[in-house]
Amino acid sequence: MGSLKELKERVWQSNMDLYRMNLVVHTFGNVSGIDRSRGLIAIKPSGIPYSELTADKMVVVDLADKIMKGRYKPSSDTRSHLLLYKAYTQIGGIAHTHSPYATAWAQANRAIPCLGTTHADHVQGEIPCTAKLSDKQIKGDYETETANQIIKRFYRLSPDEVEMVLIADHGPFTWGKTPEQAVYNSLMLEEIAKIALWTIVINPDISPLRKALIDKHYLRKHGKNAYYGQR
To answer: Whole-model pTM above 0.85?
Structure first.
């Protein structure tokens, strides 16, 4: 990913993109990026408004959660990010927001069903929601347990094919090969969540999209013989 300075710049820009896209407000949410060769992660500092963020304020931690560079505390969600980076070595960036529509589904403890082709363009099925945390998990290492719930939910799912999840009672996490891709997935998730909600409001009896149409839209964009876009 280049120099550590470049990593911090990209992570800062990605955090600001969340803000510009209206996916976060005030201090909510965070983006991180990892330099796999060094085992270092840059992440947003905790509790600092987006309007005050600069690249220099990004905090660098190692995979053991030790601060390596920076004068601020890292995001309170840092341990969740670290565990996901350890579990899924193909991930290069992670985003967490409290965007309204995706968070509403998370608070309702509902996976988002695939109701149309907009959704199928990005995920070949429902967008999963984790199980609720127990009181013991909440009172323990809350951030680690949050990531554990994601990993448990993805036991039979591919994090390469489904790059987004809803944390029950909490909000969405997304990821990708880069911080920029994680932010893009946050934007797509919010749009999918909004469209799904309004679809159910208009037709409460709507059924999930049939498999043939889901597969067609997903595979023409992501499959071995994909033909969407320019090559």
So the answer is: yes
